[in-house]
Design a protein that fits this description.
Length: 56
């Protein structure tokens, strides 16, 4: 199965002392070997922030 489940975590919330938001997503291992980065909404900060893939 080429697709795997990943967890995306906010990169800006910890710097500001707030709880980071997390999202679940999938990626294709065969076409995308590098870590995933997406702009997602963080409800604690009330704005869109950069979310990066973290280890399970």
């Amino acid at each position: 199965m080429p697709r795997e489940h990943i967890i995306l975590e906010c990169t800006e919330a910890r710097k500001e002392g707030k709880s980071p938001s997390r999202y679940m997503s999938t990626r294709n291992k065969k076409t995308q070997q590098e870590k995933v980065e997406k702009m997602k909404y963080n409800p604690c900060l009330k704005r869109h922030t950069l979310h990066r893939e973290i280890k399970d």
